[in-house]
């Protein structure tokens, strides 16, 4: 992603109103967004699924952050994130997951977008807007507003 401020190109990496009942389906959707937008090759999705089996990526607040295994890092073409919003959510490890952030990154890749999202999750009002968006643009707006508020532009 060019620069810190998310552009309209990021709209292609967001899927709103996805319906699924398993973590595997959600991870595949997050991975497919990255694949379709040329952030990864297909082998990375398999790495995301393996990582989830070995080390679940559920954070809190209904959010999980699947990413690849060390052996799938060669499948990363460029760093980035995808977002899958699942309004009805699905049950996972005793939690209800409704927001999946797919990550394509090698260890040395800084992901400013992900750092902004974790900041947003800690603030109840912003978290509500991010996790219950009315549009793809609202997700971008919440993240961009946080950049401005933190003085990082």
In short:
The protein has 153 residues and is of the alpha/beta class. The chain has helices at 23-36, 43-54, 112-121, 124-131, 136-149; strands at 14-15, 58-60, 63-64, 80-92, 95-104.
Key features?
alpha/beta; single chain; 153 residues; 5 strands
Secondary structure: elements and pairs:
Blueprint: E1 14-15, H1 23-36, H2 43-54, E2 58-60, E3 63-64, E4 80-92, E5 95-104, H3 112-121, H4 124-131, H5 136-149
Parallel strand pairs: 1-4, 3-5
Antiparallel strand pairs: 2-3, 4-5
Helix pairs in contact: 1-2, 3-5, 4-5
What would you say this structure looks like, in words?
- This protein has 153 residues and is an alpha/beta fold.
- The chain has 5 helices and 5 strands; from the N terminus they run βααββββααα.
- A 5-stranded mixed beta sheet has the order 1-4-5-3-2.
- The protein starts with 13 loop residues before the first strand and ends with a helix.
- The mean pLDDT is 90.
């Amino acid at each position: 992603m060019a620069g810190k401020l998310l552009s309209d190109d990021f709209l292609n990496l967001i899927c709103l109103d996805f319906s699924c009942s398993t973590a595997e389906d959600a991870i595949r959707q997050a991975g497919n967004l990255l694949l379709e937008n040329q952030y990864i090759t297909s082998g990375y999705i398999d790495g995301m699924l393996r990582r989830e089996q070995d080390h679940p990526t559920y954070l809190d607040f209904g959010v999980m952050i699947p990413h690849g295994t060390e052996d799938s890092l060669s499948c990363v073409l460029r760093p980035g994130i995808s977002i899958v919003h699942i309004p009805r959510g699905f049950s996972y490890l005793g939690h209800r997951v409704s927001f999946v952030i797919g990550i394509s990154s090698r260890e040395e890749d800084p992901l400013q977008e992900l750092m902004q999202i974790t900041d947003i999750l800690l603030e109840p009002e912003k978290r509500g807007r991010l996790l219950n968006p009315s549009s793809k643009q609202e997700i971008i707006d919440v993240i961009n507003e946080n950049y401005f508020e933190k003085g990082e532009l």
